[in-house]
Write a structure and sequence with these properties.
The protein is α/β, with parallel strands linked by helices. It is built from 18 helices and 16 strands. The structure holds uridine-5'-diphosphate.
Length: about 475
């Protein structure tokens, strides 16, 4: 279980400057120079439990690239664990979102959790030195805080999860984590109300995540490239008709060579209006709910097809439920009446090559006419920001970070249990391109202002500066 050092490709701040403009770039560079001076040889470590799959890894892949370009002394370590450990942390994760899953957390679970996190903390303490700062991400790493703090390392816990309401299962998870968390110096949440009462407010900071506008996930793609990528990965009818080329994060050319694992009776035609939801195969994303709403309420009302896309299930190491949830969606799909089933596709996107996976997500989002994020709970919802950046109209659940993102007409918010409201909103947007376009433009402007990397890095620089 040796921690693994991850070194994502360097990303040029100057390229980000092309999107954010000279003034925002100047402010960012000045903050980076100031922070480098004040760090004075100390290192900032980011610690999480997977290098790929899910929002945290997605963000670290990008931000670490910019930090390298800014020549800030930062490192990213991925810590491991056995199946039992990730089974416990998945139960914690679900409970912190207010969803019950699996049996209650026991003393034995607490002991197993503490054992693994202590081993991980000891390994990290061999690498980090007193005075360094460690940012621990999510419940998988929270247990490392006491040992690291005892070695003179400043610990910041970054929690990407949260629930809008207190629940008994949520309280159970927070009680489980409480003894581990109190030794951290600061806590970072995506929304203010995710902080449990026992963590001091004055040591808590709200930092929403960000997306990278020039990464393969979000970079501009011309319609020809969108079509070529969709053909190459096998999610639209007709098969490939030439190479699907794109630019990798490190600036080298890439080409789509893997195909998605697709469950479909028929593949959609290129000109069929497409509704897309992209998520990990996680029950809280309610992929099955999208499928049912599409088949029962959206498909009968007019044209359109649905693509539900997620990572290939054996590929996301810290998410043991993925295969199970995918199988559940598969069963729901199989049980659909043939008429609507032939318009719905489940696509598992290959994860061997992250840039290739990202450009597939990008092409799907850009090709769609409406994007759904029908989550039952959502810490922030990067997929929503990604869709908004692409000027797509989003129909999202009125939960967690989706609320802030889609407020004020930047998208449509629907209660997660309101299948009719969800379906009605999707249908209206498929049928009203002018409204879809207006919404998409407002969405893009908001993401440009609030959720790009410079805003994110400045918020972190301010927090880290407090400890120097
Ligand atoms: N994602 C991806 N490939 C996939 C499915 C998801 O790259 O096959 C990405 C997605 O684009 C987003 C992230 O995984 O950047 C998911 O983050 P989000 O905050 O939406 O949800 P989380 O998975 O963290 O709960």
């Amino acid at each position: 279980m040796t921690p693994q050092l991850i070194t994502p490709p360097r990303r040029a701040l100057a390229d980000l400057g092309e999107v954010i403009g000279a003034e925002r770039l100047r402010i960012l560079r000045a903050a980076a120079d100031d922070l480098r001076r004040r760090l004075n040889g100390r290192t900032v470590w980011q610690i999480n439990s997977t290098a790929t799959g899910g929002g945290v890894a997605e963000m670290l892949q990008v931000l670490m690239g910019y930090l390298a370009d800014a020549e800030l002394p930062t490192q990213w370590l991925v810590v491991g664990g056995e199946g039992e450990f990730f089974e416990i942390t998945k139960r914690l994760h679900n409970r912190m979102h207010g969803a019950s899953s699996g049996p209650p957390l026991t003393e034995a679970d607490a002991a197993a959790y503490a054992r693994t996190t202590a081993v991980n903390a000891a390994a990290v303490a061999e690498l980090a030195k007193p005075g360094d700062l460690v940012v621990l991400h999510d419940p998988q790493t929270a247990g490392m805080a006491p040992l690291l703090a005892s070695r003179g390392i400043t610990v910041i816990w970054r929690c990407h999860i949260g629930a809008d309401r207190r629940t008994p299962v949520g309280d159970e998870a927070w009680e489980f984590l409480r003894p581990h968390l109190l030794s951290a110096s600061a806590y970072v949440f995506s929304l203010a109300h995710y902080r449990p009462d026992f963590l001091p407010e004055e040591r808590t900071v709200v930092i929403p995540p960000s997306i990278d506008p020039i990464a393969p996930k979000n970079a501009e793609l011309d319609p020809g490239t969108v079509e070529a990528v969709l053909r190459a990965c096998g999610v639209i009818a007709g098969g490939p008709d030439g190479p699907a080329r794109f630019l990798r994060r490190d600036g080298r050319p890439g080409e789509v060579t893997h195909t998605a694992k697709v469950l479909a009776d028929e593949l959609p035609a290129l000109d069929e209006p497409m509704l897309v939801q992209i998520s990990r195969w996680d029950r809280l994303k309610d992929m099955a709910g999208v499928l049912t709403a599409f088949a029962e309420r959206i498909a009968p009302g007019g044209p359109g097809c649905l693509v539900l896309a997620g990572p290939q299930v054996d590929e996301v190491g810290d998410d043991p439920e993925g295969a199970q949830v995918y199988a559940e969606c598969q069963a729901v799909w199989q049980a659909l009446p043939r008429q609507s089933r032939r318009r719905a596709v489940l696509a598992s996107l290959p994860m061997e090559d992250l840039d290739e996976n990202a450009v597939m997500v990008n092409a799907l989002q850009r090709h769609s006419v409406v994007i759904a994020q029908k989550s039952l709970a959502e810490g922030f919802g990067l997929t929503v920001a990604e869709a908004m950046w692409k000027r797509r109209p989003v129909v999202g659940s009125a939960v967690g970070g989706i609320l802030d993102q889609l407020a004020d007409g930047r998208g449509v918010l629907v209660e997660p249990a309101d299948a009719a409201g969800f379906a009605g909103a999707v249908r209206r947007l498929i049928d009203d391109p002018a409204e879809a376009s207006r919404m998409g433009i407002a969405a893009h402007e908001f993401v440009h202002r609030e959720y790009l990397g410079d805003r994110h890095l400045l918020r972190w620089a301010e927090l880290i500066g407090r400890f120097l």
